[in-house]
């Protein structure tokens, strides 16, 4: 069953020089128990697409779509209060830069318990017990003690685990992980990816991973969408994408991987293709 269905999503921001279209006609679908990766260079509209779907963009952003549904429910037709009942509960997101996403003025325990209070209505004792359970689930040592810590008292990897615990607190049907391993060292990256994939399999969640790392895509995804400058360039299952990419842009992305380097420096996408060549093969 489809969890999230998006057709012809357009997101525009007003700038001093006029409207800027950050997302231009993107369509996607993610099913129960499926992992979809959205990959592309920085600025390709990956995060904006998902923030638009969740209703988390500023009011100045103009969001339109032919269809924007979660679990068969029209998200665009919802009021802000109706959408807040879903976002954080049935759809959850792990944001980039956990240190910046967590509130420095409150303990991590307060921040996870706040979600449990708002969405599940648990009392104080039940909230604390659930928070400890979640910290244990994501591998935070001494969970009862850690609840009283502030974000600055924890490492980047631990803060990322806190963000994962918050996102999983209400057993969401769909989890969106936005660059979940950014700014973490290689060992912690592997631990976080392994944790996400284990939890996704155990809970049967649909999951969207937003990344520019093709290695992460290869390790985690069932299907892949490639984006460039707000448009979808290609969509394929993960094996097909790596073995026989259809678009010239995807081939260029794969050629720019360090393992494929043939000289002293990696080529840039601009050295391969013009925008006209890239968009000539774009899909909806």
TrEMBL record:
Sorted UniProt keywords: ATP-binding, Cell membrane, Membrane, Nucleotide-binding, Transport
Domain of life of the source: Bacteria
InterPro entries xref list: AAA+_ATPase (IPR003593), ABC_Ni/Peptide_Import (IPR050388), ABC_transporter-like_ATP-bd (IPR003439), ABC_transporter-like_CS (IPR017871), P-loop_NTPase (IPR027417)
Organism of origin: Rhizobium giardinii
Annotated protein name in UniProt: Dipeptide transport system ATP-binding protein
A GO BP annotation: transmembrane transport
Family classification: Belongs to the ABC transporter superfamily.
One GO CC annotation: plasma membrane
SUPFAM superfamilies found in the cross-reference section: P-loop containing nucleoside triphosphate hydrolases
Membrane topology: Peripheral membrane protein
GO function terms (MF aspect): ATP binding; ATP hydrolysis activity
Domain (ABC transporter) ranges: 4-254
Localization: Cell inner membrane
Chief place where the protein resides: membrane
């Amino acid at each position: 069953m489809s969890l999230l269905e998006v057709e012809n999503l357009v997101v525009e921001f007003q700038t001093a020089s006029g409207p800027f279209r950050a997302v231009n006609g993107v369509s996607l679908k993610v099913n129960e128990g499926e992992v979809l990766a959205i990959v592309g260079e920085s600025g390709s509209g990956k995060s904006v697409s998902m923030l638009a779907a969740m209703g988390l963009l500023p009011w100045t952003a103009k969001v339109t779509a032919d269809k924007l549904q979660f679990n068969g429910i029209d998200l665009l037709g919802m009021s802000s209060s109706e959408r807040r009942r879903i976002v954080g509960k049935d759809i959850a997101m792990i944001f980039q830069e956990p240190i910046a996403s967590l509130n420095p003025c409150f303990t991590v325990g307060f921040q996870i318990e706040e979600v449990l209070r708002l969405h599940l209505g648990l009392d104080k004792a039940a909230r604390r017990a659930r928070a400890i359970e979640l910290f244990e689930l994501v591998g935070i040592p001494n969970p009862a003690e850690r609840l009283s810590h502030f974000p600055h008292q924890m490492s980047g990897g631990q803060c990322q685990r806190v963000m994962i615990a918050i996102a999983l607190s209400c057993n969401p049907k769909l989890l969106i992980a936005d660059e979940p391993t950014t700014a973490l060292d290689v060992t912690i990256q592997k631990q976080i990816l392994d944790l996400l994939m284990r939890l996704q399999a155990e809970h049967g969640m649909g999951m969207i991973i937003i990344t520019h790392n093709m290695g992460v895509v290869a390790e985690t995804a069932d299907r892949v969408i490639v984006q460039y400058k707000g448009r979808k360039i290609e969509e394929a299952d993960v094996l097909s994408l790596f073995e026989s990419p259809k678009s010239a842009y995807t081939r260029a992305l794969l050629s720019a991987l360090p393992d494929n380097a043939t000289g002293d420096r990696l080529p840039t996408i601009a050295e391969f293709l013009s925008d006209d060549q890239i968009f000539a093969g774009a899909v909806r």
